[in-house]
């Protein structure tokens, strides 16, 4: 499925560790795959790190395919992936679970409902923590023991010590410099193998636009690939914010271009998302040279 040749012992390890007899709800947590890149090392290195029991931190701008890559890893390992989306109000309960009262044979009992961290640890599944640098700095140290070689946590709600089952690993994503994010604490970052995930370009981008957008006009898609390339050059030269070249925004723009005049699609899909008037004009100027 992927153009990647893994070392035999790693492939064997992956095959041996594939969880069998998954329940339907677990099966639905396995990612569908589909991440493609100009650089095969990204997927290769992520697979090797996870196969060796290490945690992976995907670092890249919005819409660069970090979630898609995490889903692809889940599909390669055939491992269900539990997800957490961080925000400032993420707390220990959202990570670990909570206590609740349940009726059992007519008797009220207190039971613990495991959250994504505990579930993934107990089952030996993958855990995806999106936008990890959006969480309050005081929440994340809960995970320090989970993320290092101990892979252990004392559940503060039950006192139980949980040791992760074989196969458990964490994939996190960060978008550094994005509004609302804080630099990731060094101790935490230190517990990950860091993989940079840049925006894709050229033929690889063309294939993604052809397969994921509703636009079928190949010539027009090729022009959008050139637009993206030009925008990425402006980003590199410091004239444009990174998110102007987002693949997600480009897919939306291609979708709109099925029914809207192309320039208006670019305005709605890309330019209007930027705060700075000069940046909006820069995007539209590039677009005019291609679509007018
Ligand atoms: N390299 C890629 N291969 C396949 N699809 C991609 C790739 N890059 C982006 N996409 C597509 O672009 C869209 C955005 O990707 P995704 O949600 O994975 O980005 P992200 O980096 O996780 O974004 P955010 O930081 O905003 O959460 C998705 O529809 C995804 O399928």
Description of the structure:
By secondary structure, the protein is an alpha/beta fold. It has two domains: 8-196, P-loop containing nucleotide triphosphate hydrolases (Rossmann fold), CATH 3.40.50.300; 202-291. Helices cover 41% and strands 16% of the residues. The chain contains 13 helices and nine strands. The protein has helices spanning 8-17, 24-27, 41-51, 66-77, 92-96, 116-123, 144-147, 186-189, 202-212, 218-236, 247-256, 262-269, 277-291; strands at 55-59, 81-85, 97-104, 107-114, 126-130, 152-154, 161-163, 169-174, 192-196. The strands form three sheets. It has a five-stranded parallel sheet with strand order 2-5-8-1-9. Strands 3-4 form a two-stranded antiparallel sheet. A hairpin with a 6-residue loop joins β6 (152-154) and β7. The longest helix is centred in the C-terminal third of the chain and has 19 residues, at 218-236. The protein is globular and about 70 Å long. Adenosine-5'-triphosphate binds at residues 34-37, 60, 62-68, 173, 175, 200, 208, 212, 247-248, 251.
């Amino acid at each position: 499925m992927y153009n990647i040749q893994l070392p035999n012992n790693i492939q064997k390890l992956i095959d041996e560790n594939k969880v069998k007899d998954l329940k339907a709800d677990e099966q639905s947590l396995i990612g569908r795959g589909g991440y493609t890149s100009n650089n095969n090392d990204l997927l290769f290195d992520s697979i090797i790190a996870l196969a060796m029991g290490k945690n992976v931190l995907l670092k890249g701008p919005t819409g660069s395919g970090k979630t898609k890559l995490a889903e692809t890893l889940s599909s390669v390992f055939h491992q269900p992936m539990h997800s957490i989306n961080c925000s400032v109000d993420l707390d220990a309960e959202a990570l670990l679970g909570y206590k609740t009262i349940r009726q059992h044979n007519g008797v009220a009992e207190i039971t613990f409902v495991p959250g994504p961290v505990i579930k993934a640890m107990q089952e030996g599944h993958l855990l995806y923590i999106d936008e990890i640098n959006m969480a309050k700095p005081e929440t994340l140290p809960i995970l320090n023991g989970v993320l290092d070689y101990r892979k252990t946590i004392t559940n503060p709600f039950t006192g139980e010590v949980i040791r992760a089952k074989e196969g458990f690993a964490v994939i996190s994503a960060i978008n550094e410099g994005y509004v609302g994010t804080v630099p990731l604490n060094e101790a935490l970052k230190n517990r990950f193998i860091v993989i940079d995930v840049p925006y894709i370009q050229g033929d690889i981008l063309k294939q993604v636009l052809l397969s994921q957008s509703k636009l079928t006009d190949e010539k027009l898609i090729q022009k959008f690939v050139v637009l993206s390339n030009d925008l990425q050059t402006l980003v590199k030269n410091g004239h444009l914010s990174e998110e102007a070249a987002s693949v997600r925004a480009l897919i939306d723009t291609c979708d709109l271009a099925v029914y809207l005049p192309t320039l208006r699609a670019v305005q709605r899909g890309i330019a209007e998302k930027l705060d700075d008037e000069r940046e909006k004009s820069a995007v539209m100027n590039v677009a005019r040279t291609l679509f007018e």
